Amino acid sequence: MIDKKLISLSINYDRCLCLNLSLIDFYPSTLIESIWLIPLGFVAGLLGSIIGLGGGIIIVPVLTFVGFSPTLAVSNSLFAVFSNSVGSTIAYAKQKRIEFSLGWKLGLMAVPGTILGAFISSDLSSEIFKILFALVLISSASYIFLKRKIEEKPVDISRLLLVFSAGASFFAGIISSLFGIGGGLIFVPLMVVALGISIKRAAPTSQFILMFASFSGLIVHSMLGHPDYYQALLLSIGAFAGGILGARLSLEIKENKLKIIVVIVLIAAAIKMIVDSTGIF
């Protein structure tokens, strides 16, 4: 008579062996397939840190092009934007280029908008998302191209402007969680044009603000089950390193050539998204 315990042990051993073999097959292939997310996060973080818009304007189009769903691309991107903002904020703080008193106020004002944006993203179709994001990319490209023409003015933080800033920050929060870009597209022009903050301090302060906007957004997206944490981790590793290096290079790099390259990439991405969503070709 065969011992039932021996049969049970044999079955369990076979199951464990099969499970271990499947894990051995899975993890290396997953790592190889996803390792490109680290350099993507690095390049996006580098450019995002220098320009002050966060790396999401690069990450989301790339992820969408390779087949990621909008909610997955956006939620993964927010992890990278948060990591990038932490890295660049550390570097910019050492350079004393951040307006902390203004930054934390605008950051907290954006939090309610990020919550709303995360819920809206769940119900947004892929076609509508691509068209709306294409408009965001075109707006980003226009801002980057015209950045040098924006005239600075004396700092003005009156009560009326703070009310206006609160509304703008709420809108930036919605954009942050809806498109996974952090909201720098709104914060930098707001600080330069409306509040009179110099461009050299507005971009670093924007990165500090994005810590609040991206963190609250990624929390809500995580509660809704949107991100892939492994992919988000790889993006975040690259974005953190890119944020630190970008902050250092911002003191030395000639921005004009970099602006032209980034603008061309953004416009091309916008055109590709419009073509994909409308099915013109």
Unreliable parts? 4-29
- Structural class call reads mainly alpha
Number of helices: 11
Give the biggest sheet. Answer: none
Textual characterization of the structure:
Residues 4-29 have low confidence and may be disordered. Helix 2 packs across helix 4 (70-94). With 281 residues, the chain is mainly alpha-helical. It has helices at residues 4-34, 37-51, 56-65, 70-94, 100-122, 126-146, 159-179, 184-194, 199-223, 229-249, 255-278. The longest helix has 31 residues, at 4-34. It is built from 11 helices and no strands.
Main features:
mainly alpha, 81% helix, 11 helices, 281 residues
Structure summarized in a few sentences:
With 281 residues, the chain is mainly α. The protein is built from 11 helices and no strands.
Fold topology:
Layout: H1 4-34, H2 37-51, H3 56-65, H4 70-94, H5 100-122, H6 126-146, H7 159-179, H8 184-194, H9 199-223, H10 229-249, H11 255-278
Helix pairs in contact: 2-3, 2-4, 2-10, 3-4, 3-11, 4-7, 4-9, 4-10, 5-7, 5-9, 6-11, 7-8, 7-9, 8-9
